[in-house]
Protein 1
Amino acid sequence: MLAELPEIQPMDSTPSASGDDRVLGIAAHVSSLVLPLLGPAIVYAVAVARSTAATACGRQHAATALNFHLTMALVIPAALIGHSVSVLGATVLAAGPGDLMSLMLATTGSFLGWFALLAGFGLFELTCMALGCVAAARGRPFTYPLAIPLFH
């Protein structure tokens, strides 16, 4: 009397990548821990040189890792400079250019703000790299958030 339920299919039923593809993908994400920009660039160059249908996923992981770390190399210094200019500029405008104590406090606050920004960006990067490694190990595509797509 009970009707049989259809078999549940996974949402992503694409075939998983080969072993070489997975290694390239994981290397693309992990290499940035050792060589921040150079690591993903080297893995991307290797992936492009070995580019076949079998290594398409590894090349995609290498490209997205390189795009993300290039984006972070632009965003982090801009955020630190913007933070420093805003803190020091607000202090000089509020206290006046001759108030040395306010300027020293603003500089200290700026360094504490730098530390908070760097810690936040570092945690964000590590989390994204871990997610990318998991996706590469499973042979699935991955896209970093906030990455400017320069390489494909």
Protein 2
Amino acid sequence: MSVPFTKPARRSSLFRTSALCARLAQASLFVPSMPALFVATLASASLLACAPQKPTVTPVAARVAAVANTGLTLDVDLDVHNPNSFPLIAQRVEGAILLGNGTELGRGSATPPGSIPSKGSARITTRLQVPWSNLGALAPFLLSAGPVPYVFRGQATIGGDSLNVQIPFELSGALTRDQLLAAGLRGFPAFGG
């Protein structure tokens, strides 16, 4: 399709170029120049390269450090990898302890010490205080002499001052008979109390 073009009267070159672009745009034939496309593509790529990338969290271990009649203390180890060119901070670790049957025993949270270096990894160890919210849920497990399996379903909040991401994770463990006794379950008939 050709676009009729009449030579305008003697005007400045800026006006002539603007008029030509306007006519081409009206005719839907305007195609940006190759240098303009290259600059636009380069700008888009550099913006994408500067966008923060989500860190990865690999759960390592959950260990019961202490058990009392008010709750338990849980040590959680997470390996965090930072793909960004700036350091990140582990802002918070939180979650719930669930029994093997899905019943929640309690929730806890903590602010872990440490940071994750740029383009690097770090192990984040956090000690959470988890008050019992449903100690009676252990009753069905009292007849068994074996350990009581649990799952810690949590999330780690990783980021900086203005941008954080929450990354879910899950760890498994077991409460021993001695730990259940420390939780104050001596009064239950299965423990001879």
